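As a warm-up, study this chain.
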Amino acid sequence: MNRLSYVTLILMFFAFAKANSQQTTTGLESYAFTLEEAIDFALSNNYQALNAKRDIAAALKQKWETTATGLPQVTGTADYQNQLKQPITPLPGEIAGGEPGTFVPVAFSPKQSANLTATLSQIIFDGSYIVALEASKTFLDFSENSNNKTKLEVRKGVINAYGGVLLSQENVDIVTRNLETVEKNLNETRKIYENGLTEEEDVEQLQITYLQLTNQLNSARRQTEIAMNMLQLALGIDLKETITLKDDLESLALKTIDPALTNENLNLEQSVDYQIARNLSEQRRLEYKLERSKALPKVTAFVNYGTQAFDDDFVFFNSNTQWFQQSIAGLSINWPVFTSFGRKARVDRAKIAWDQALTDQVRAEQEIELEYERAVNEYQLAIDTYFTSKQNLQLAERIENKNEIKFTEGIATSFDLRQAQTQLYEAQSEYLNSMYQVITNKAALETVLNTPEYLTNNDQD
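Now compare it with the structure written out below.
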């Protein structure tokens, strides 16, 4: 190997080591997402989505915990006693040959004892256990519905945040172009004013517009940074990471326009909010059933086996120590016969809570239907506003262009030009907002309908 090749290899090694060191030190990553990719990423990494999945895992564990209480239970106990001061029992003195009326102190129990016992117990019948099993299934169903609700909210949040970033970025681009145009007009008008061919007011009007646009641009840049942070939070990505968005606002808005969605019928059974309301009323019904089941007897069987040894000295680990075996089997029946009407009060209170839950379920149905009508109206309005704003923008651009030409030729005043520019800026803002509203209002309608395709694709989660 020649000297040049050797030096080249050394330089490559140090360059690689430096790059690897920088990557290890910073630990930063770069992400690029389309909207759908962002949604898929958030469903696996969003903080709320992660905890919702953990809630389901906890519900499964709780279900088994409830089931296990009705299965055979084995407990073991180990007791050791050392009577530092042994209890004394007085016996008549005649027994030991003493005089009548005297007593002889006798210690009946040994000073030390050890006892090992294992007990097997099994519930034969318990009405509350049967209800608890049913309730654990309902709770698991509730956790799954809550997880689907979280998915819907995460999806809507990502769409809103993603669209918010695109809106802010597009706003920065438009304000930047407007500022460049005004700055060009301002410079040209200053030269004309310096040559005495126009009034100072023309320059001042353009200066006002220039300063306003400068402030708008600075504000738009700050809003873009905040919007990006909100998106990263919705995605579950550290705020120090960098994100690139593959979609643009206009193409995304066009893909989002779907007038047929406004004609889709609302299916209450498919609504997550309705399913959750039904879960809550079912839980109250089971609580009522649980209170009633407490009037039934509880039957438990058990059998134990134990061994015991005792001595005045600690001899329990000696091989020649004698251990005495014992075993007991039994059946226990616990039946609350009279509770001074306390149980009846608890049953009545549970029934009232169940009735309240049923009323809340009816109210939830009405609210969902109302929310659907509002979401349909707002989505249709957003579509109509988008097409109107697009036409208004084209008109405002032509008006501003005509006034700019007239101003250059001295036909229009600076006030006329400023008015046309202000009208253009408002049209641009309305157009950007109309695209954003189409995107977010469709997401809101899909959330009510519970129709996004991702739910079907992510059932395995």
